[in-house]
Amino acid sequence: MNIYQAIEDIITYAEIHLYADYLDHEYFRNAVFNLLNLHVDGEYSHSDEDAIASLDVPDSVANPIVDYAIEQGVVEDIDRELFKTALMGIFTPRPSEITATFDCLPTEEATRYLYDMGIKSDYIKLTSIKKNKYWVYPTSKCDLEITINLSKPEKDNREIARLRTAPQSGYPKCMLCKENINYQGRVGFPARQTLRYVPITLNGENFYMQYSPYLYFDEHCIIFSEEHSPMTMNRATFERLVDFTRIFPSYIAGSNACIPIVGGSILSHEHYQGGGHLMPVHYTQAECEYSHPLYSDVKVYKQDWFNTDIRLVSDDPAKLVDLAEYIFNAWQGYSDESVGVIAKTSDIHNAITPIARRIGDSYTLDLLLRNNRTDERYPDGIFHAHPEYHNIKKEGIGLIEAMGLFILPGRLDKELALVKQYLKGERVDVDYTLEDNVLYKHKDMVDELLSRYPLPLSEEEADKVVKDYVGEVCKNILDNTAVFKGDEAGKIAFDKFMSSMGFSKV
Ligand SMILES: [Zn+2]
C-alpha cells in the first residue's frame, strides 16, 4: 500500500463528497501528514475520480490510512475508531460553514445535506448500521418493526481494563452536550471530530439538531437543549415538539418520559428524538373519538394501539398544546386501582410519551400514557416487559419501542442462531437446559418451539419461527406497557379516565 496514494485518494474523496475546495489540497495533505507524523513526501498518481465518486461511505479511502497508522505504531489498534474519526474530522466542514449552508437551503434539502454529510464523513456509521438485523412482524393493528442492534461494537477486554483505570473527566458533561463537537474522545467516550449540529429555535428557545450516529431509523435525529439540564416534561415540551414539526414538516418528533423504566437512557440532558420515518403507531386506526366542550377545535381519538394512545389533531398548534397540557396534568394525578394505576407513592409514577407529527396542514400529538410503578410481583415495572420476556428485552421501553420499533440487544443475534440450530436438528455445542449456559435464559422459548414444530425445520422455516416468536414477544411487551389494557375492564377504565377530564364519546 502506498500511503501517499491513499492520502491523495482521501483528499479527492473530500473534494467530491465533503465540499472540500481544491485550493485547500496541500493544506489537507499536511493535515494528514501531521496526524501520521510523516515528514517525507512520496510518489503518487492522479486518483481514480469515477471510482471515488461512486463511494457511499469513506471506508475504502479511510481504512488504508488507519491500517497504516496502526502498522507504523502511530496509534494502537484498540484506538482505531478514535483515529479514523480524527482523520475524517480533518475533511468535515467547519460547523459555521455547515450552518450557513443549512440555513440557506429549503428545509428538506437542508436536512438531506446535513444527513448526507453525516454519512459521507463517517459520523453516521452506515457500514456498521447495515449489519443490524431488521424485520417486520405483522399484527392485527399494524406491522411492528424489529431490529437487532449489531452496530455498537462490543467492548473488548483491553478496553474494559483501560476504563477501570481511566481518570474521570466530567468533560463533556454528557454525550448530548454541545461541547462534544470536535472532541477528540477518550477511553469509553467517542471521538466527535465529525459531529455537526445546527442551531434551531424551538418555541423561542435555543436548541440544536444533530443526527444520531446509531441511526435507529431513517434520518434519526436528536434535538437537544443548549444547556446541560435534566429532562423535564411540561407545557414547553409539547410546544417545542409541535414547533419542531412546524419547521420540519416531514419529520416526527417525540420525547421520552422523564422518569426511569418508561424513559430513555439519558435523563440528564433535555433532548428529543425525531426523524424522517413514520413509526408503526402512526399507521394505527382510531378506535373511538371523544369531544370536550372547552376544546372543540381539537379532534381527540383513542388509537387502536397496544399501549394507551390518545391522539390529538388540530390545525391550531396552540390549542393542541393547551389540550395536551390539560391531559398531561390530569394524567399525572390520576389513579384507578381497579386496573393497577397508582399515580404516586413516594414518587410520581404517571408519565406521558408524546410524539408530534404533521399531516398536511394539521398538527397531531400522540400521547402515550405510561406508568413506572413497581411492586413485589414486578420489581422491574408493572407496566414494563414482564419477566417471561426478559430473555428478549429487559431494558426500559422508551420512546422508540413504545412507538412500535424495537431495538433489541446485539447478544440476541448469536443466541437466536443457536436456537435455530436446535430447530434444524443440528448438533449444538451449548446445552440450553444447563443453568450456567448462554442459552439458559431462553429455556422456555426453546422448550415451547421444540414442542410446537415437527423437527427438523429447514433454515427458512427455523428463521421464520424464531423471528415470529420474537415479534410476538415484542407485541406482548407493548401489551405489558399498556396502562389501560385492550380488554373490557381496560376499555371501561379508559372511558372513566376520559370522563373524569370532561370528555364524552362522540
Ligand atoms: Zn449534557
Provide keyphrases for this structure.
16% strand, HIT family, subunit A, 14 strands, 506 residues, eleven-stranded antiparallel beta sheet, three-stranded mixed beta sheet, 16 helices, alpha+beta
Task: Explain what you see.
By secondary structure, the protein is an alpha+beta fold. It has three domains: about 5-90, no CATH class; about 155-215 and about 215-385 and about 485-505, HIT family, subunit A (2-Layer Sandwich); about 410-480, no CATH class. It has helices at about 5-15, 25-35, 50-55, 60-70, 80-90, 95-105, 105-120, 125-130, 155-165, 235-245, 315-330, 400, 410-425, 445-450, 460-480, 490-500, and strands at about 135-140, 145-150, 200, 205-210, 220-225, 250-255, 270-275, 285-290, 300-305, 310-315, 350-360, 360-370, 405-410, 505. The strands form two sheets. Strands 3-4-5-7-6-11-12-10-9-8-14 form an eleven-stranded antiparallel sheet. Strands 1-2-13 form a three-stranded mixed sheet. Helix 2 packs antiparallel against helix 5 (about 80-90), helix 6 packs antiparallel against helix 7 (about 105-120) and helix 10 packs antiparallel against helix 11 (about 315-330). The longest helix is centred in the C-terminal third of the chain and has 23 residues, at about 460-480. The radius of gyration is 25 Å and the shape is globular. The N and C termini lie far apart (about 70 Å). Bound molecules: zinc ion (ZN). Zinc ion binds next to loops.
